[in-house]
């Protein structure tokens, strides 16, 4: 199969982890006889430096024509003092919005061989396998007005949603629950926010369409606590943009590192931008220390979601599992046992494992 992939490496560790994921995709192409072509574009701080804007028009145009998009990360201290419309993060928010990527799927599954990498007790982490379905193009991130007022004496951000925006993400989450364990937890702050009260109404209306799914409501503060005390309780969590951002970094603790969490930012027709949950990690950028697995697993999500290449995605996931079982890991996992390697060596191990045909265990993450 022929597929055209746009790479948006971005800033900090973005280029390192994107290169690692590209290498794994090349191994897939070789093994399965696919033809993947790649085109690299700037976004974020790199684009500000070279083109004066965090989201150049040619980047958007290339993404619109792509079969799949793989992003590294954007941002860093170099650009922190720029006005908000010129920050690298605006490039990421802009591409999500312009492409209509309203659903962000963030699967969180602890690999068995990494249970002891979490700072939580192994018996707490064991059995956790959840999916955060985060609304990605609305809420506080995009609501207007957002401004300083009264000579800087006041400031306003706006949390706005239309009912239609809520309906489509809640539908997506019910559908994800149907292919998983039929348990949906809708997370909100309905004791305080009007938007959350409407969110609850929409969930209540939608549940009539999915009678096989057990749905409940949970306040975000309580959910944050339960995520680290009883994570195995959760199957699918659906929540608005900002809550989903925060809960997903928290959930990464279950896997041992933020460098383990992949994500898919998708829309209905299958186009997707695949991005690790982590950021540009300026503290380790350029040192070949970054864990490439979140980016590699994001590439696997691209194969499954945008290209319908399930076997190929499973091969990557199984190879990652095997490499971890063989106790190779990067420094972020903070392990005292096993073999600590650089990011590029870990990525190479994954590709070698894929070519060895010794990856039989299907550890597939289920998400729809
Ligand atoms: N998707 C994105 O592009 C994205 C996501 C989050 C943050 N950011 C941006 O990244 C910059 C830094 O933000 P931050 O420091 O709060 O968050 P971060 O995710 O970049 O880093 C948080 C911590 O996790 C570590 N870490 C993250 N990814 C890792 C990996 N793959 N391997 C090993 N360790 C890893 C970092 O070293 C750091 O200690 C900010 O400008 C922020 O806006 C971008
Ligand atoms: C960089 C930032 C804008 C982004 C977000 O908040 O969506 C990041 O934290 C993420 O989780 O993808
Ligand atoms: Mg985040």
TrEMBL record:
Its EC number is 1.1.1.85. Its cofactor is Mg(2+); Mn(2+). GO terms for molecular function: 3-isopropylmalate dehydrogenase activity. InterPro entries: IsoCit/isopropylmalate_DH_CS, IsoPropMal-DH-like_dom, Isopropylmalate_DH. It is found in: Cytoplasm. Signal peptide: none annotated. Binds 1 Mg(2+) or Mn(2+) ion per subunit. Residues 4-350 form the Isopropylmalate dehydrogenase-like domain. It catalyses: (2R,3S)-3-isopropylmalate + NAD(+) = 4-methyl-2-oxopentanoate + CO2 + NADH. The record marks 141, 189 as: Important for catalysis. Substrate binds at residues 96, 106, 134, 221. Pfam families: Iso_dh. It is an enzyme of class 1 (oxidoreductase). Mg(2+) binds at residues 221, 245, 249. NAD(+) binds at residues 76-89, 279-291. Gene3D superfamilies: Isopropylmalate Dehydrogenase. Keywords: Amino-acid biosynthesis, Branched-chain amino acid biosynthesis, Cytoplasm, Leucine biosynthesis, Magnesium, Manganese, Metal-binding, NAD, Oxidoreductase. Its main location: cytoplasm. Pathway: Amino-acid biosynthesis; L-leucine biosynthesis; L-leucine from 3-methyl-2-oxobutanoate: step 3/4. NCBIfam families: leuB (TIGR00169). Belongs to the isocitrate and isopropylmalate dehydrogenases family. LeuB type 1 subfamily. Homodimer. Catalyzes the oxidation of 3-carboxy-2-hydroxy-4-methylpentanoate (3-isopropylmalate) to 3-carboxy-4-methyl-2-oxopentanoate. The product decarboxylates to 4-methyl-2 oxopentanoate. This is 3-isopropylmalate dehydrogenase. The lineage of its organism: Bacteria, Bacillati, Bacillota, Bacilli, Bacillales.
